[in-house]
Design brief:
Blueprint lengths: L3 E5 L7 H10 L3 E5 L1 H5 L5 E2 L2 E2 L5 E5 L2 H10 L3 E3 L9 H8 L8 E5 H6 L1 H8 L4 E6 L9 E4 L3 H9 L5 E5 L6 E8 L2 E10 L2 E6 L3 H13 L7 E9 L2 E9 L10 H20 L1
Parallel strand pairs: 1-2, 1-5, 5-6
Antiparallel strand pairs: 3-4, 7-10, 8-9, 8-10, 11-12, 11-14, 12-13, 14-15
């Protein structure tokens, strides 16, 4: 069964059009779908027909959109964004030696605020630390935070006593790339930032590809069959910045033909295994 792609409406604007066009060019249906439509119990119509359980569907948008498809529809695969595997507490343990933030602390946000002085002594001698949510729910944007702003920066996470945050020393990143990994293959890549500012260019240097393939050859664990790997250049070498879910991460200038083909193949295989 050919997958149907459901792209969350109102998230990517005109940037979604080339993705929709490529999906349809490869013979798959693609629809823009508002998040509120997934929240209803009514049928979702795509490709001219209501989707049924367990149809072959790929949801793509924000994390809440993808998670809604995972939890409340029985589509296959539904979405690729395993929140347990993509939590820093999980994948940091697998990729530790490659991490940009190798030296870090992970603790509840409320506890981090309480331990502010100790954390800044450890990671922020210049009264600045890097802070980000540990989980997929990006309740605040990962960034460097000055000591006087620490409590307010983490406040969105402090309302949840279980919300964990990552604290580390600030690191300057010269360039950053996003790679799409399908099982053991790097199928596409794109530069997305230079000196901390958005700078999108297609492709990625050979050394970035070699770094990613070497890391994936050594670390055989995978968070999902297909996922995103962000690589950054800092202090003259390459590091793993972050792993993220395929269904809730933008593709920038990745080769859409390669990405759509790889995702479509994986979805068809998952559906065939489920319905065999």
């Amino acid at each position: 069964m050919r997958p149907v792609w459901l792209i969350e409406a109102g998230v990517y604007g005109a940037e979604a059009e080339p993705l929709l066009a490529e999906i349809r060019r490869q013979g798959m249906a693609a629809e823009l779908l508002p998040f509120r439509t997934l929240l209803k119990e009514k049928d979702v119509v795509a490709g001219g027909r209501p989707l049924a359980d367990p149809d072959c569907v790929i949801a793509y948008g924000t994390f809440p959109f993808a998670r809604q498809a995972q939890l409340h529809r029985r589509w296959v695969p539904g979405a690729w964004c395993d929140p347990d595997n993509l939590d820093c507490r999980c994948y940091f343990a697998h990729f530790g030696k490659y991490l940009l933030n190798r030296h870090h602390a992970i603790l509840p946000a409320v506890e981090a605020v309480r331990q502010r002085e100790r954390l800044y002594e450890t990671f922020g001698p210049d009264d600045e630390v890097f802070a980000r949510p540990a989980g997929c729910s990006k309740v605040f944007t990962g960034r460097c935070v000055y000591k006087d702003d620490f409590a307010s920066a983490l406040s969105p996470a402090t309302f949840d006593p279980d919300a964990q945050v990552v604290l580390a020393a600030p690191r300057e990143i010269r360039r950053e790339w996003r790679l799409v990994v399908a099982e053991d293959r790097v199928v596409a890549g794109s530069q997305y930032a230079v000196e901390g500012s958005k700078c999108v260019e297609p492709g990625w240097p050979a050394e970035v590809r070699a770094f990613a393939l070497g890391m994936l050859a050594e670390v055989r664990w995978r968070p999902d069959p297909i996922f995103m790997v962000d690589i950054g250049e800092s202090d003259g070498r390459l590091w793993l910045v972050e792993l993220s879910g395929f269904s809730c991460s933008w593709l920038y200038a990745c080769d859409l033909e390669a990405v759509v083909a790889a995702a479509g193949e994986l979805a068809e295989r998952a559906w065939a295994a489920m319905t065999a």
